[in-house]
Structures are given as C-alpha cells and as structure tokens.
Amino acid sequence: MNAAEKKFLFLALFLFALGGISRLGVFSKLYPMENILLPMNYDAAIVDTVAVDTTAIDTLAEEDSKDKKAKAPKKRAPNFPIPINTASKEDLCFIKGIGPSLAQKIIDYRETKGPFSSAKDLEKVSGIGAKKRMAIEEFVKFD
Fold first, then answer.
1. Quick check: 128 and 95 in contact, CB under 8 A?
2. Considering the domain boundaries, does residue 124 fall inside one?
3. How far apart are the first and last CA of the chain?
4. pTM for the whole structure
5. What is the Cα gyration radius of the chain?
6. How confident is the model over 15-36, as pLDDT tens digits?
7. Could you read off the pLDDT of 70-120 as tens digits, one per residue?
8. What is the total count of domains within the chain?
9. What is the CA 119 to chain-centroid distance, rounded?
10. 3-state SS string for the chain
11. Which of 85, 90, 97 shows the shortest CA–CA distance to 74?
12. Is 134 a domain residue?
C-alpha cells in the first residue's frame, strides 16, 4: 500500500468514525455554530436596523396564494382508453408522447379530414410515425 492509499484509507476511517460519533449526539451538546459565528445580540441588531411594516406584505402574499389556488384547478386524468374522435386537447395531452402541439395537430386533422377509423390513420397526422402510433394506440379507442 503506497502513501496515497494510506492517506485515503485514514481519511475514510476518520470520516466514518466522525459520522458514527455525530449520530450518537455528542456534537449536539456543544454550542451550535451560530453562537460562534454570530454576535450574541444578533437578533436585537436586526430588529433595530430593519423596521418594516409586514402587514401589507402578508396581505399581498395571502391574496397571491388565493389567486394561484383559484387559477390552477387540479386536472383529472381521463379514463383510458380515450375516444380519439371526441377527445379534447387536454385529454390528449395526458397520453405519453403527446404534447399540446401534437394534440392540436390531431384535432386539426380530425376536423378537416374526418374521424379516425383505425390506428393506421394516426400516421397521417404530421409528427406521428409508426413508433409513436404504436405507443399511442393502447391509450386511445376508435369509435
């Protein structure tokens, strides 16, 4: 064993022992690092230098959180298989491999060319090849 390997082994054993000692709670009885690094009257210094009325900030935060909750209702996954000829854009986006743009292409194709009669018709949509069709067809049904 050369010198570098001995140093590495010593460091690994030291860190292993240090981890075991820290799990026993020996270090929790010592002063926390905050007491060493910060002055004793740190909290008082913050209160004296910063005088902010937080009521306006709190009310804005509450209004913002209410708006976010109202704007973003939870989306429920549709029951699979999805009827491809009547599915909405949001329903199509739940299928793995279909994003919003591809879902819109499927809807546009369906509206211009008529309903899909088989899984092979999906390949006529721009962006859907044989592999993607095979991945999609287990999640959709054709009326």
1. no
2. yes
3. 73
4. 0.48
5. 31
6. 888 787 777 765 555 555 555 5
7. 555 666 777 788 999 999 999 999 998 899 999 999 999 999 999 999 989
8. 1
9. 32
10. CCHHHHHHHHHHHHHHHHHHHHHHCCHHHCCCHHHHHCCCCHHHHHHHHCCCCHHHHHHHHHHHHHHHHHHCCCCCCCCCCEECCCCCHHHHHCCCCCCHHHHHHHHHHHHHHCCCCCHHHHHHCCCCCHHHHHHHCCCEECC
11. 90
12. yes
For residue 20, give both structure tokens. 């075991």
The answer to whether 105 touches 125, Cβ cutoff 8 Å, is yes
Phi and psi at 141, nearest 5°, equal -130, 155
Q: Is residue 37 part of a domain?
A: no
CB atoms within 10 A of CB 102: 20
Tokens 């959180």 correspond to what residue? 65
Residue 75 in any domain: the answer is: no
Residue 113's domain comprises: 82-141
- CATH code at position 102: 1.10.150.280
